Amino acid sequence: xxxxxxxxxxxxxxxxxxxxxxxxxxxxxxxxxxxxxxxxxxxxxxxxxxxxxxxxxxxxxxxxxxxxxxxxxxxxxxxxxxxxxxxxxxxxxxxxxxxxxxxxxxxxxxxxxxxxxxxxxxxxxxxxxxxxxxxxxxxxxxxxxxxxxxxxxxxxxxxxxxxxxxxxxxxxxxxxxxxxxxxxxxxxxxxxxxxxxxxxxxxxxxxxxxxxxxxxxxxxxxxxxxxxxxxxxxxxx
Length: 237
Hints:
seven-stranded mixed sheet; alpha/beta; 9 helices; two-stranded parallel ribbon
């Protein structure tokens, strides 16, 4: 059996209007590059039946799996579940609202050959956001996190990244995969203190075309700031 080169983890909640298009876009990009992959969708029992749609549409595609969680909830624990079910040499995590462009996947994988963690960054040349107000606030916040924690990337909130499976296994899951997007700050921090190597590729966030964002902007930044401060003070070790 051929080795799976990459496992793409897609955490979902009420993304019925996006998920099939996204999966098909991912498949097209990876198939064109002849990359051996699996796609794992972890759905938190969405009222709009996102998980059921995945299971129905791809029932004859063993490389695509839909997991529906009936009891657990939350972005970070959904990602953890997907990682624990994966067998790829490299793990890629991405959002399911098309903020994260599937065409970036080959670039993440290419850089993963030389680096342990590769981040899709909005704040390097070629990256950015269609929502310029959010881009400004996000960039300023990322500068603060970068200075506070010394994490060697420009986008500490990206959530679009590739990491080698064997490197990921050395990171303490219980200390990282809880909460919402703040998990990514913790992941980068622990990767840094483990001495992992980092790289970035440009990522541009388009505006959402379908559905509503689950992010509550002000509360999100409060939670992220709290996480960064706790790490800096050594409260999470």
